[in-house]
UniProtKB/TrEMBL annotation:
EC number from the UniProt entry: 3.4.11.-
Cofactor or coenzyme needed: Zn(2+)
CDD domains: M1_APN-Q_like (cd09601)
This protein's UniProt keywords: Aminopeptidase, Calcium, Cell membrane, Disulfide bond, Glycoprotein, GPI-anchor, Hydrolase, Lipoprotein, Membrane, Metal-binding, Metalloprotease, Protease, Signal-anchor, Transmembrane, Transmembrane helix, Zinc
Domain named Aminopeptidase N-like N-terminal: residues: 69-262
Name the UniProt record assigns to this protein: Aminopeptidase
Gene Ontology biological process terms from the UniProt entry: peptide catabolic process; proteolysis
Chain segments annotated as coiled-coil in the UniProt record: none
First and last residue of the signal peptide: none
Lineage per the UniProt record: Eukaryota, Metazoa, Ecdysozoa, Arthropoda, Hexapoda
Native organism: Nyssomyia neivai
């Protein structure tokens, strides 16, 4: 899943401003942060005295494979008052090679005792030490080595430990929220966990690698105050009093073998609701949703959606849901969109809570998508798991693809056309990243926690999903399903590698070698552009070449790879549908496509199922066909043509005029479909920002969207029952219209916004229609420059209890046209324990940077105070890593490139953002080149073609 809802590119250009108050404030914050950090550090470094620290020289990030954990007995006590936790774990393990020492993961934990028992229950005296660099605990027997174990023999190590729960949102951490259901609001503390990929070691010492699957007996100590509950992966077995008067101990049933990152703990006073799941293959079971008190009514949509989706998956995989229960919980502070903890999926509130008053159609689709993604993981990811993170795409790409199958149960009833939306939700964004040298192959080595978390990126999720979609298109859905079912069945409760998956595909198909075909997509980065040359009325010549968005970047490539692919070719012509796949092979100099009957045109890559783009020697034929109102080209074909031609224009492969000319079909044929318009609005928004708010482009676009604006006109809301896609379309069109300064849109938005603003602070809020509310708030706030009005909206944001509404306001606050207010917002966002959640910090920084007036405020702060930022957000946070390319993506001058370079030199520790930094640099280099090459030509065409 994408990690949080991002708005479309509200990005702008830069103006230099450095505000003294920022500096003073930053100093203040950094001083506090430093003091807090020192305290934490002291606690963290409290290792057992008088034990030798192993020299890092003989340690490494990977654990030895000869010590194999089989079972964990784990007791954890999150102390909600102190916001610290204590715990005790006994790990049973086997040894396959005599060992001098036991190495397991432990990080940010203080270890109080360690005892080791031999397979014959003899106590073995040990010394132990922690190593922060490798995040390990090393336990060394004082005499002799540990012998190998026979079958059914186990050593047992018991470790007592403690740690902090504040200032973080990974590992075991505390989270706070306001309970509004009593006589007066009160703040409640809960404790929750998030371990994927390398944070279980921050909650208990463990063998924190996905291949080390073991069973768990988990017990949690919770407050005994009636409302608190304790939850984990498995159902509760028993609850006993103690260990103190005010505490209870909840013991859970033993889990099946699972990876450490899937363990989960929750102690909270949440309310719940449940449904029974019809288990087509076994006993029915209960699905329970846990929500913060006061929010419980907002879980209905999610619960019903989850029920439909999980029942679908049981039938689709034809494998029973593996655990006896399934819970979902919304956590007030959550670092990602959600995590697939087995049996208890935890979500950020905006990914689970939805009601029709505050949640838009887009929010609703997002909630359903996240649920569908996480529930797919119950099989793909949890029942079978990648052996090592280099294959994380097997978890994430698969879940990101299967998620669409799960969503189809809702999409079919409600007309979401979810399959079409794949193009704009998953495919196109990754085609952009993957057209850079800075991209990487789907399978990629990773060793350190920073490298590992960085792999949870668009390549694993979106490209992974896209190449699986392509594979299903050429093996066929029935074969695909069978292979998946057999694959999961065979490896259940075990770990897998990429080759295993394709092996199972190969067993089901005849005539092609899936392993060979797919290795060209999995083991090398990038993708091809297929060039189509018409030879005659029935034959076309196809060739392939790696597609690079910046032709100059080829020189920077250091990777040795043929950059040739097995390209599945499908086509449609004016008289034929070529659904049968033909192959353009890596070794083919060219491929001659015979389309049978004489045709006027050919369009390659049906529904853009192949992970490639297409260039035609005669775009005019395609453009003519697009302008034919009777055209047989479907919405996905049209979206694809728009996408491909602009990419080819961007990469200077075809003249930009061709792309602009193609776009005129949108008005000529009165296009009304959401997916093609979505491609167009995203493309034009980027173009407008790169061209620095070109007036010519503004005129062109305003004219182009004239008819579609009337079609979606917000004045008509309520006249007819709009469908889901109409709501999504309206929002997209209005955003573009308002950005272009189209007067109808701005007038409407302004009237709605002032009605809302005037109602703030009165007994009854008057809110705009929920599906365009974000647009109204955003463009309404753009007109605000005075602190009084901004503060009114800010106060509402702080008070707001609904997560979807809060998210809309959070973005709108960054739209103001006052630099002072933007600075103020940035400063508030970084207050430690301030009103804004840590999970939202990077998002807000990006929102401010997307405002043309805010970019330099953010950029100056980031490049001068990176140290302060990394005290708020750990450099291991992947969202922080992504922040650099996100905020600098519109820079297009040599001066900005140099600033970026200096920033990297000044702060060389990139954490999980190392690859993202390289990407950021490449993007700016490309923007510079793009401006030199395209700007004048575009302006010329616009002048000639705009009335
Ligand atoms: C996912 O569901 O894809 C991931 O678990 C996201 C995460 O929490 O890291
Ligand atoms: Zn996932």
């Amino acid at each position: 899943m994408g990690f949080f809802d991002t708005a479309i590119g509200w990005v702008g250009q830069n103006k230099a401003v450095t505000v003294l108050s920022v500096l003073l404030f930053a100093f203040f914050i950094s001083t506090i942060a430093l003091a807090v950090q020192k305290n934490n550090l002291a606690a963290e470094l409290k290792t057992c005295e008088s034990t030798p620290t192993p020299t890092p020289g003989n340690l490494q990030h990977r654990l030895p494979s000869s010590i194999i954990p089989t079972h964990y007995e784990l007791l954890l006590h999150p102390d909600l008052g102190e916001q610290k936790f204590t715990g005790k774990v006994t790990i049973s393990f086997r040894i396959t090679e005599a060992a001098q020492r036991i190495i397991l993961n432990s990080y940010k934990l203080a270890i109080t005792t360690v005892t080791l028992q031999s397979p014959t229950s003899q106590a073995i005296e040990t010394a132990h030490a922690l190593n922060e660099t490798y995040q390990v605990l090393v336990i060394t027997p004082k005499s002799g080595q540990l012998a190998t174990t026979a079958d059914n023999q186990f050593y047992k190590v018991t470790i007592e430990f403690n740690g902090e729960m504040t200032g973080k949102n990974v590992g075991l951490y505390s989270s706070k929220y306001m309970r509004l259901d009593g006589a007066s609001p009160r703040e409640v503390t809960i404790s929750s966990s998030k371990f994927q990929p390398t944070y279980a070691r921050q909650a208990f010492p463990c063998f924190d690698e996905p291949e080390f699957k073991a069973t768990y007996n988990i017990s949690l100590i919770r407050p005994n105050d009636g409302e608190y509950i304790a939850l984990s992966n498995m159902p509760e077995e028993e609850t006993t009093d103690g260990p103190a008067n005010n505490l209870k101990t909840v013991k859970f049933e033993e889990s099946p073998p699972m990876s450490t990152y899937l363990a989960v703990f929750l102690v909270a006073d949440f309310k719940h609701d449940d449904v029974e799941i019809e288990n087509a293959l076994g006993e029915n079971f209960k699905m329970t949703m846990y929500l913060p008190a006061g929010q419980q009514d907002k879980g209905k949509f999610a619960l019903n959606a989850a029920k439909d989706i999980i029942e679908y998956y049981i039938k689709y995989f034809n494998i029973k849901y593996p655990l006896p229960k399934l819970d979902m919980a919304a956590i007030p502070d959550y670092v990602s969109g959600a995590t697939e903890h087995w049996g208890l999926v935890t979500f950020r509130e905006t990914s689970l809570l939805w009601d029709e008053k505050e949640g838009s159609a887009r929010n609703r689709q997002r909630v359903a998508s996240v649920i569908s993604h996480e529930l797919a993981h119950m099989w793909f990811g949890n029942l079978i798991t990648c052996k090592w993170w280099n294959d994380v795409w097997l978890n994430e790409g698969f879940a990101s693809y299967i998620e669409y199958k799960g969503l189809s149960v809702i999409s079919e009833n409600e007309g979401w056309q979810i399959d079409e939306q794949f193009l704009i939700e998953d495919l196109h964004s990754v085609l952009e990243l993957d057209s850079k040298v800075a991209s990487h192959a789907i399978t990629q080595d990773a060793t350190t926690p920073d490298e590992i978390t960085a792999l949870f990126d668009a390549i694993a999720y979106n490209k992974g999903a896209s190449v699986i979609r392509m594979m299903e298109s050429f093996v066929g859905p029935a074969v695909f399903q069978k292979a998946v079912e057999k694959f999961i069945n065979n490896f259940q409760f075990k770990s897998v590698e990429t080759a295993d998956f394709f092996h199972y595909m190969d067993q089901e198909v005849t005539g092609i070698n899936v392993t060979e075909i797919m290795s060209t997509w999995i083991h090398q980065k990038g993708y091809p552009v297929v060039t189509v040359k018409k030879l005659s009325a029935t034959t076309y010549e196809l060739t392939q070449e790696r597609f690079l968005i910046n032709p100059d970047s080829k020189a920077q490539e250091t990777e040795q790879s043929p950059f040739r692919w097995h390209v599945p070719i499908t086509y449609v012509t004016d008289v034929a549908n070529g659904d049968k796949v033909e192959w353009l092979k890596p070794t083919d100099e060219k491929h001659t496509l015979n389309v049978g009957a004489a045709s006027k045109w050919v369009k390659i890559n049906n529904k853009q199922e192949g992970y490639y783009i297409v260039n035609y020697d005669n775009w005019d034929e395609i453009i003519t066909e697009l302008n034919n109102v009777e055209s047989k080209l479907g919405p996905m074909d049209r979206a694809q043509l728009l996408h491909d031609v602009f990419k080819l224009g961007d990469s200077m492969t075809v003249p930009y005029n061709t792309a602009l000319k193609l776009s005129t079909y949108l008005k000529e044929t009165n296009e009304t479909e959401y997916v093609p318009w979505s491609v167009a609005t995203n493309t034009f928004t980027s173009l407008y920002l790169l061209l620095d708010h070109s007036l010519e482009l503004q005129t062109y676009i305003t004219n182009l969207i004239e008819l579609i604006y009337d079609y979606v006109d917000p004045q008509k809301i309520g006249e007819a029952d709009d469908g889901h896609l109409m709501k999504l379309l309206r929002e997209k069109i209005m955003n573009l219209a308002c950005r272009m300064g189209q007067s109808k849109c701005l007038r409407y938005v302004s009237a709605e916004f002032y009605t809302y603003l005037d109602s703030l602070g009165t007994a009854e809020l008057v809110k705009p229609d929920v599906d365009i509310r974000q647009t109204v708030y955003y463009y309404g706030m753009k007109g605000i420059t005075n602190a009084v009005d901004w503060d009114k909206v800010y106060d509402q944001f702080i008070k707001e209890n609904d997560p979807q509404e809060r998210a809309k306001l959070m973005e709108a606050l960054a739209a103001t046209s006052s630099k002072q207010l933007l600075t103020k917002y940035m400063n508030i966002a970084q207050q430690k324990d301030g009103p804004i959640k840590q999970q939202d910090y990077v998002t807000i920084m990006q929102y401010i940077a997307y405002n043309p007036l805010g970019i330099d405020i953010v950029w100056d702060y980031v490049r001068n105070h990176w140290d302060n930022i990394t005290q708020i957000i750990d450099v291991n946070d992947r969202t922080l890593g992504r922040m650099i390319p996100n905020i600098t993506k519109r820079f297009s001058t040599a001066a900005k490139l140099q600033e970026l370079q200096l920033f990297f030199e000044r702060f060389p520790i990139a954490g999980a953002g190392a690859a993202a930094r390289i990407e950021a640099r490449e993007t700016i280099e490309y923007n510079i080149k793009w401006m030199e090459h395209n700007k004048a030509a575009i302006e010329k065409w616009l002048q000639e073609n705009t009335v």
